[in-house]
């Protein structure tokens, strides 16, 4: 993103998604996608800093089978009836770190538990004065047990790989 700090961006939900993978029985990976990522990127508290505020509706999860999807939405995993969203709020990040790539830290709330997380950010060269969408790619890992997902600990790895493909659109003000 070009220098300057007054731009606000919203996450283009139709063009953004989050995917995950977890190892099953130490042999194969199972994964899925969240087809909706909502939120915004706004100026942070200091010049040239930004704060990411993203929400993922749990019901937007897509899996290879209906049975697996129901398993993930159940109380042992996402508990979608009681915790319908996943929420991430970043610590302020310098725009230069998004340009060159770096680490995005913040807090993730999942199943009512908030814990610190960090994502590796691929370099993204977004022009602040342009109406062209900006694409961010983030990679990270979380531990299921941190968020109370302790069921099926023998067949499933505790470590979950998260990948986010986020498209930002500049707010028209």
TrEMBL record:
<dbReference type="Pfam" id="PF04264">
    <property type="entry name" value="YceI"/>
</dbReference>
<feature type="domain" description="Lipid/polyisoprenoid-binding YceI-like">
    <location>
        <begin position="8"/>
        <end position="169"/>
    </location>
</feature>
<dbReference type="InterPro" id="IPR036761">
    <property type="entry name" value="TTHA0802/YceI-like_sf"/>
</dbReference>
<dbReference type="InterPro" id="IPR007372">
    <property type="entry name" value="Lipid/polyisoprenoid-bd_YceI"/>
</dbReference>
<protein>
    <submittedName>
        <fullName>YceI family protein</fullName>
    </submittedName>
</protein>
């Amino acid at each position: 993103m070009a220098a300057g700090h007054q731009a606000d961006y919203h996450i283009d939900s139709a063009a953004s998604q989050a995917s995950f993978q977890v190892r099953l029985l130490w042999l194969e990976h199972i994964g899925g996608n969240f087809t909706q990522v909502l939120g915004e990127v706004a100026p942070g508290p200091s010049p040239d800093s930004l704060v990411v505020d993203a929400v993922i509706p749990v019901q937007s999860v897509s899996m290879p089978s209906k049975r697996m999807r129901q398993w993930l939405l159940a109380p042992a995993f996402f508990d979608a009836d009681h915790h319908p969203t996943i929420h991430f709020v970043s610590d302020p990040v310098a725009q230069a770190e998004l340009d060159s790539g770096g680490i995005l830290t913040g807090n993730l709330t999942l199943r009512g538990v908030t814990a610190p997380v960090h994502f590796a950010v691929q370099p993204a060269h977004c022009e602040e004065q342009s109406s062209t969408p900006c694409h961010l790619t983030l990679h990270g890992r979380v531990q299921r047990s941190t968020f109370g997902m302790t069921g099926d600990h023998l067949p499933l790895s505790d470590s979950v790989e998260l990948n986010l493909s986020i498209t930002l659109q500049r707010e028209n003000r």
